[in-house]
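Reviewers asked in the last cycle whether our approach scales beyond single polypeptides. To address this, we selected a multi-component target totalling 626 residues and predicted its structure end to end. The input consisted of the following lines:
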Amino acid sequence: MRSAAPSQTRGSSSRARAGRRSRKPGSGIEGLRQKWSGSKKDKPMNDAAQSREDLLDRLRRSDHVPVLIVGGGINGMGSFRDLSLQGIDCLLVERGDFCSGASRAPSRMIHGGLKYLETGEFRLVRESAQERNRLLANAAHYVRPLEMIIPIYSWFGGTWAAVRKFLRLPARMQQRGALIVKLGLALYDIYGALNRAMPRHRMIRRKDVLREIPDLDPGIRIAASYYDAWITSPERLVVELALDGMAANPGSIALNHLRFDGVEGGRARLVDTMTGEAFLIGCDLMVNAGGAWIDSVNGAAGSSKRMIGGTKGSHLLLDLPAFAETLHGRMMYFEAEGGRICLVSNFMGHALLGSTDIPIEDPDSAVCEDDEVEYLLSAFRRIFPDVPVSRDDIFFSYAGVRPLPANDADDPGAVSRDHSMPELPPEGDRRFPILSLVGGKWTTFRAFSAELTDEVLRRLDMSRKMGTEALPIGGGQGLSQQAAPVERLLTCMIRHHGLTRSRARQLVARYGSRAEGLAAALADGERFLTHLPGFSREEIALVARSELVRHATDFLFGRSSLFLEGPLGFEALQEIVDALAHALDWDAERRISELEHVIGRYRDLHRMEVTPQSGVRPRFVRTVGA
Ligand SMILES: Cc1cc2nc3c(=O)[nH]c(=O)nc-3n(C[C@H](O)[C@H](O)[C@H](O)COP(=O)(O)OP(=O)(O)OC[C@H]3O[C@@H](n4cnc5c(N)ncnc54)[C@H](O)[C@@H]3O)c2cc1C
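The resulting structure, written as structure tokens, was:
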């Protein structure tokens, strides 16, 4: 990346200037229309990323690709990177932005799957624990160890149900007692032993845990502590896989906002959702990584086979900073009514509470509903009875659909989280087979992608050039869980690019070792936003241009964690759209429609209302669709 547009100064004077700039002719969308219609463009920046137009042009010029991947969630993108590394040209198409399905809606745990011990899925636990340890090493910039605390209410509860489950007899686990938790964690330690990265479990006496977490229900008997991991920026990791894949193989292309629309004349029909332009492209093999939409993608390709039985999971982000602080960076892993496991953790100063597990037919309709809000809040009140919490504390809500295999289980929690790769042979007009990536976890995406890649290599009679077991991802390159590599990076950014220590830290937290490239490009100076002083116009522009941003929502929900971190009021959104507009050459009308699109998305998918009057914290909309 080359230098950003030269800016005037750093620090407070630039902020003051930015403040003066932000005085507007009127408030609300109408005021913006007047303001933006006369605005000038920033000096254009050059960067290494290929523009969408270049990528589409390549598509226009080709009529065949060995592998077409439909779906840019973690499983599609993991496969894209692995196949590209083997020298196989792939085209990945994602109808929305990358990572916009289930992969953007997880509990953010990178975990060995403690609860799969109950269903006897030992292979899955072993694989998950191993992949967790690998991600701690390969994506150290976003994946960190996480201490989990299990509050326990009895000594022997759940033992009989566990024995029945182990014997594969019907049973519902609830009120898991100290004995069963202790046994489970001892086994879990054994599975996590390979490449062990974290301490073993320990039991904590009641009085000790209550001293450490004073808001916890005093009715508990004992607690257990063990380690898993969490991911700060799953959405960014998916984009980094796309960039890594394209860098590894210039013949591979990943395109967002391009929908697989069916088959025509034996070839796949793709539609640019930004312009309506259609493309026809043949392939040797199609990989359906459509997650909860796998059946609809296969349906468009002429198959009526049912593979998916998705369940919706919702989360709430609660604005309870004092409570979140008392967790001291730990995640509580506790039982809600009926024995379902819920989680609450401190996510960037807010309490992240999840999740539900409800069968759903149409994944496009997934939004956190009123009864889920009640369920989650009452689960929270059970273990933190003295922490006052209500709907007024909701800062954000999100829902996603797990792409589980089709099933007729009564208890959605009992459906296996393992993955499979069923094949649809060529049929009718469709001359290529389809492999569908059903199920799986965020945690296990690398292993799933490697399985798919090995299968493709076998079909193409090729052998693997390299494995991904120890391959860093994006800004994880050069970093580890140790402090020393980060310190070296910070020193370099401060010394060579003139950044302050706190700004260098901020960039490393956001971009890992990719921050160094950014720092070099930002060295000429930055103009920080008035309402979001942690971001500069130059940083936003660089990310927008080098990380395949097409819409303001791509930046807000996919290249930054701003939607979770906040606070994001109307004024901050307006500044971000303005910065993106300069970088991506949007005219006044486009800016308005982008801003309206962001606000609409907040309202329709997250039940949050952003208006000029809503202040810095969007308001939770009480009735779905209101
Ligand atoms: C509530 C919840 C909590 C979870 N928590 C965790 C957790 O803590 N840890 C963990 O390891 N796992 C977790 N998971 C599981 C994990 O998130 C999913 O298994 C994983 O994200 C699935 O990824 P995917 O790529 O298969 O599907 P998705 O991420 O859903 O990707 C499918 C993509 O296909 C695209 N698509 C659909 N139709 C088309 C089309 N016609 N053309 C082009 N593109 C199309 C969609 O837009 C979507 O982006 C959780 C899941 C949920 C829902």
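Residues 70-76, 93-96, 100-103, 105-109, 111, 259-260, 289-293, 297, 313, 355, 400-403, 437, 440-443 surround flavin-adenine dinucleotide (CB under 6 Å). We regard this as preliminary and will revisit it once experimental data from Aim 1 are available.
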